[in-house]
Amino acid sequence: MRRRTVAQHARLRSPHPIAQLLTVVAVAVVVVLVSAAGVAAYTAYDLTTSFTEEAVVVENQPPVPPDLSELEGGVNMMVVGIDACEESLREVFGERCEGPDAEGQLNDVNILVHISDAPRRVTVVSFPRDLLFDAPACDTADGDRWGGGYVQINEIYTYGGLSCVMTAISDMSGQPVQFGAMVTFGGVIEITNAIGGVEICLASDMRDENTGIDWAAGPRTIQGLEALQFLRTRYGVGGSDLARVSNQQQYMSRLARKLVSEEVLSNPATLFRLASTGLRNVTPTQSLTNPLTLVQIASAVKDVPFEDIVFVQYPTVQASADANRVEPNYDAAQVLWDALLANQGIEVTGDAGANGGVVVAEPAPGEAAPSEAPSEGEAVEPGTVDPNTGAVALPESITGSSAAQQTCSAGVVN
């Protein structure tokens, strides 16, 4: 697909120091909820009671003792978004919430957040919901055992809950996953409302009868139901699940910018509303319930600049068993995992708009441009270190962008 650009504001800056208890959540749709718990620890400790009551026990995961020292080593956090048929959303979900399977909870958003050891960087890996792979056996939430097998990733939560999703991703990636959090799409609505909405960008008109979208091109501030519509749409960006992931990553990046804006940081009422909303809507793992742990995580990422917060899609190939599904591209993914384990920076060589979901935005006249991408004549062999940046060049099949590089939804009129 030919790369397109659209004029957009692109004022770039590193996060404000006051954002130390918010930055970690700025890297994903719902990690915001986790950091909000850290804010609450300073303002109203009793708010954390409900946050800890339903904490999830993760299979084979040792407890994380409270510690006021600096966070050591790299850590991983699994963030899962659930399309549960909440009563207020049944009409919105339509056929999804009708019939005998209506009560099933599908993990339609699966994000692994990696926080590196010093120098601190944040890498957000999104896994397509249509990904088929061999999942390992795992303990289920009710104490039984699921046998695993060849399965679509978004079915795993139904079988075994958050713990099972974390076990599967850890097995696939070879990465230890120390923390996890789950939020429903209804919770995402509440989060977006708490900060007064998130401004997204549409390069073209967007229409999707399945989610009820009929929006004109240009900037648009979304919250409430509109935020849910935007995160769920796939036909509004061409019908591909990979395009939808790119579109969701635009939301994450712009959420990051909203969280570190003066509009949020300078408003104590907004900060408290964000914290309390997060505590009411997130289900964490037990390893994530101690306020001291939350402070450690937030402190580790408080100074990470936008250019070092990178969003990537897990690389895939067409599934052999189903042309409408995808399978892991293990060789390409291994380059990413090896770099993270070795605490090396990564360089995304795949075009952010390769899957058709987004286009790269141009800065408005007089504003700073995003960090420059490698020039076409300076290609670096995947898996090797780029001498100009010192980062590991990822295969082109791993697409994505940094929080410093703004994108807009490509939009497709149906």
Shape: globular
Strand order of the largest sheet: 14-9-2-3-4-15-21
Q: Give the end-to-end Cα distance, rounded to a whole number of Å.
A: 19 Å
Average pLDDT, rounded to a whole number, is 78
Number of strands: 22
Describe the structure.
The longest helix is centred in the middle third of the chain and has 19 residues, at 241-259. The chain is built from eleven helices and 22 strands. The protein has 414 residues and is an alpha+beta fold. The protein has helices at 31-43, 48-53, 90-93, 156-173, 185-194, 225-232, 241-259, 262-265, 268-281, 291-301, 330-341, and strands spanning 5-8, 75-82, 107-115, 122-127, 132-135, 138-139, 145-146, 149-152, 179-184, 198-202, 206-208, 213-215, 218-222, 282-284, 309-313, 316-318, 326-328, 346-347, 358-363, 392-393, 400-402, 407-409. It has a seven-stranded mixed sheet with strand order 14-9-2-3-4-15-21, with helices on both faces. Helices cover 29% and strands 22% of the residues.
Characteristics:
414 residues, globular, three-stranded mixed β-sheet, alpha+beta, seven-stranded mixed β-sheet, disordered N terminus
Secondary structure layout plus pairing:
Elements: E1 5-8, H1 31-43, H2 48-53, E2 75-82, H3 90-93, E3 107-115, E4 122-127, E5 132-135, E6 138-139, E7 145-146, E8 149-152, H4 156-173, E9 179-184, H5 185-194, E10 198-202, E11 206-208, E12 213-215, E13 218-222, H6 225-232, H7 241-259, H8 262-265, H9 268-281, E14 282-284, H10 291-301, E15 309-313, E16 316-318, E17 326-328, H11 330-341, E18 346-347, E19 358-363, E20 392-393, E21 400-402, E22 407-409
Parallel strand pairs: 1-19, 2-9, 4-15, 18-20
Antiparallel strand pairs: 2-3, 3-4, 5-8, 6-7, 9-14, 10-13, 11-12, 15-21, 16-17, 19-22
